[in-house]
Each structure stands twice: as structure tokens, then as C-alpha cells.
Amino acid sequence: ACPRKQHRDNMQVVLSCFLEALGISRFHASTAKSPGAISRFLNHQNWSLRTLIRTIRQHALRTFQDSLRGRRGRPPLIEIIVDTTSISKEGAFAELDGWIHTLNSVRGLHVVMLYVCCGDLRLPWGFKIWRGKGSPSPTDLALRLVRQLPSEVRTRTKHVHLLADAGFSS
Q1: pLDDT of residue 15
Q2: What is the pLDDT of residues 24-49, one digit of tens each?
Q3: Do both 64 and 102 map to the same domain?
């Protein structure tokens, strides 16, 4: 997906920041690349979203496999975490027409997120946007996300724990 060395280096920094899952929304903490270089890389490239997601998932799966390689003793506990993140929006947003809905008294964009956790490793794996009444519920979207996990993640140990809050109880 990144033919030039400088692009691969930038992509490595971005993926590393995301996979550390420290909540760093800006790349000022990076010592390998300047924040300006990373910003130009993300904003001025003609990205294929499908290719980008595929590349990120391959990197996440390799990171998951590497974290399990060479372990001794008890198999690690693998947790699949599902959560709904609501991004509150007030006012009119023509660009988001059809995406802004009310869920649990919050008007905004509602994203169902799926994370794969194994020890200290927390990988953001996928997301689906809830499109309001008449579309699949957040619970249905969460089940789709879990079904789309690679079999290597789902069958790595005898027990995989699925964690979700009370909003997914139905």
C-alpha cells in the first residue's frame, strides 16, 4: 500500500501510535517522524480506504500473532471488547445527513467499536456506524463485527471473553 520508503516509515509510526492505544490523538509523542511529516502523509495522499483498512488489519493481526509467539505456560486470556461511542453533534451538518441520530438521549454519530485485547495489547479492530431506526441495531452491528474477526483470533484459546456494557444486553 506504501511504495516509497518514507511512506512506509510514516505508516509504521502511525500504526505504532494507534496500536499503543494510549489515547494520543496527535503525533507529537513520535520521535521517529515530525508531526508535520505525518500530517502531510495522511492529508496529501490519495488513499484507497479499503486498502488502508486491509493494511491496518494485516498489521494488527501480525502484532497479535507476535505478542503470542514464544509464550510459555498458560494460554493468554483473549478479550473481545464491544462498545458504542457516541459523538455528540449539535446544529445542522449537511455532510453528515443521514448519519446523525438520537440514541440513549444523545444526538450525534454513533459508532459501534470492536477491540481485541490480549494481556497489555489492545487492538482497535473494526467499527460500524449505526444509521438510526429501521437499520440494524447496535447489538446486531456488534455481532457482525465479532463474526468478521479472523478465525485465528476467535479460536486461539479455548475461551474467548466477550465484554460489552448493558446497552448490548438485548
Answers
A1: 65
A2: 445 555 566 676 777 777 777 777 77
A3: no
The full DSSP string for the chain is ---SHHHHHHHHHHHHHHHHTS---SGGG-SSS-HHHHHHHHHSS---HHHHHHHHHHHHHHHHHHHHTT--SSPPPEEEEEEEEEEE--S--GGGTTT-EEETTEEEEEEEEEEEEETTEEEEEEEEEE--TTS--HHHHHHHHHHTS-HHHHTSSS-EEEEE-GGG--
What are the tens digits of pLDDT across the range 38-89? Answer: 777 777 777 777 887 788 888 888 888 888 887 787 878 889 999 888 878 7
- Residue 104 sits in the same domain as residue 146: yes
Torsion of CA 138, 42, 19, 35, to 10 degrees: -130
Amino acid, res. 61 = L
Q: State how far the Cα of 15 lies from the Cα of 64, in Å rounded to an integer.
A: 13
Name the one residue in this structure whose C-alpha cell is 438520537. 102
- Residue ending a domain, choose from 47, 68, 89: 68
Domain that holds residue 56: 5-68
Neighbours of 162 (CB within 10 A): 14
Location of C-alpha cell 453528515: 96
Contact 157, 75 (CB under 8 A): yes
